[in-house]
Amino acid sequence: MLRLVVSLLAAVMLLIFASQNMHEVKVRFVFGPPIDMPMILAISGAFISGFALATLNFIARTGRKKDDDD
Questions:
Q1: Interval 29-51: pLDDT, tens
Q2: Is residue 17 part of a domain?
C-alpha cells in the first residue's frame, strides 16, 4: 500500500513538473537546423539517452568480467 501511495505521489509530481515545462526551446544537433520542441521532451530525451548509455556500459562491463573469469 505504501509503495502505491509513493508511486502515485511521484506520478503527480512528474505531471506537475511536465506542465510547468511546456514552453518551447531550440535544440541544436550537430547537423541540420535547430528544432523547436517542448522543454519536457528535451529533458526526457536527455534522461533516456543517459540511462540507455549507462545500461549498455553496464552490460558491456558485465560481459567482459564473465569472459575474464573463465
A1: 888 999 999 988 888 899 999 99
A2: no
